[in-house]
Amino acid sequence: MQTVLIVIHMLIVVAMIVTVLLQRSEGGALGIGGGGGAGSFFSGRGKANLLTRATAILATLFFATSLGLTILASYTRTQKSVFEQPAASAPAGEAPKDAPQSGNLIDQLKKLDQTPPAPPAPEPAQAPPRTQ
Q1: How far apart are the C-alpha atoms of 92 and 95, rounded to whole Å?
Q2: What is the pLDDT of residues 13-70, one digit of tens each?
Q3: What is the 3-state secondary structure (H, E, C) of 43-85?
Q4: Contacts of 14 (CB under 8 A, 6+ apart)
Q5: Angle, CA of 49, 34 and 57, to the nearest 5°
Q6: pTM above 0.70, yes or no
Q7: 81 exposure class (CB count in 10 Å sphere: 0-12, 13-18, 19+)
Q8: Residues sharing a CB contact under 8 Å with residue 34, sequence separation 6 or more, in sequence order
Q9: Taking a C-beta distance cutoff of 8 angstroms, is the pair 68, 5 a contact?
């Protein structure tokens, strides 16, 4: 079902691109275009012609298929969050000694917070001051 909806979505996208590119520019910002004659197919700025109606219909279909794809994707999703999935395990025999072994990511972080901090490293011995 999702593949069919994706194909329909892509066809709508291509059709919408073609209809937008076929429309004549109003040229408001550039000072070009516009001004067709009385018998022109694209005459009248405020009139909804065939291409603008087709663009509006295709845009509505685009949003509908986008919502449909989003709803379908939410039904097929297995994990709700990255934090709820178990941590990736290391290859057999190579697990670090201090790594938590079970639970989700939040439980592992809590266990790491509960471990005592490592003792501070001893300071290096300082040389005695020079006397002259």
Answers
A1: 7
A2: 999 999 998 887 766 555 555 555 545 555 555 445 888 899 999 999 999 999 999 9
A3: CCCCCCCHHHHHHHHHHHHHHHHHHHHHHHHHHHCCCCCHHHC
A4: none
A5: 25
A6: no
A7: exposed
A8: 24, 25, 26, 27, 28, 45
A9: yes
The amino acid at residue 73 is: A
Residue type, 120: P
- Look-up of token digits 């989003």: 70
Helix (H) or strand (E) holding 35: none
Which two structure tokens, joined as six digits, stand for 71? Answer: 């709803």
Tokens of 20: 């937008």
Residue with tokens 């709508």: 12
- Rg, C-alpha atoms of the chain: 33
Q: What are phi and psi of 34, to 5 degrees?
A: 65, -160
Long-range contacts, 51-54 (Cβ 8 Å, 24+) = 51/19, 51/22, 51/23, 52/23, 54/19
